Amino acid sequence: MENLENKVAELFKDEKMSVLQAASQLNVNECEILRFKSLEEFKEICGSHLSEVLQDIASWGEVMFCKNTPEFIIEFKTKIDEAKKARGYYNFCGKSGFLGGHLKEEAVASIGFVSTKFMGLLGHSIHFYSAKNETIFKIYLSRDEKRELDKAQVEKFLALKERF
Questions:
Q1: CA–CA separation, 38 and 25 (whole Å)
Q2: Mean pLDDT by 10 residues, the chain (164 residues)
Q3: Whether the predicted model's global pTM rises above the 0.70 cut
């Protein structure tokens, strides 16, 4: 573990290094990289708080939904309505143009509040992890046309993070 921590520290001497790049280079999951960051940059909570986190995000307005695969990073802006629980799933069933889908209730083992720089800009996001530390999906706070973070969302993100 200490050896990995040293490798992570060495990689992040390069200010352009992203968490995703570091994870790929070290052949580990993003979560394992983020765990070496400060509490200011990464706070991990138990997945048992999923319902509370999703309920809060539903009040944030438009956010960036992100799903990484090795070949494709899928991103789209959407409002995430409050998920409804049924038959062991969180069901996302917004209107047209909103996020839709079904998330297994027990799939999220932990949730990470992430505040890191990418391409020189501070960003805030919430990552949802499986029991294998794999990223299921991420929610990024919105930016305006000047690439500034939505101030109301930043306040809500920090308040939610502080709650835990």
A1: 21
A2: 86 88 93 94 96 94 89 88 89 73 92 88 94 95 91 97 96
A3: yes
Q: Which residues of 100-135 are buried (b: 16+ CB within 10 A; e: fewer)?
A: eeebebebbbbbbbbbbeeeeeeebbbbbbbeebeb
Residue 116 contacts residue 19 (beta carbons within 8 Å): yes
Sign of the dihedral through C-alpha 122, 159, 110, 136 = negative
The CATH T-level fold of domain 38-163 is Heme iron utilization protein-like fold (3.40.1570)
Dihedrals phi, psi of 40, to nearest 5 degrees: -65, -35
Please give the sequence-ordered ranges of beta strands (E in DSSP) within the chain, or none if there are none: 42-46, 62-68, 73-79, 84-86, 89-93, 100-104, 110-118, 121-129, 135-140
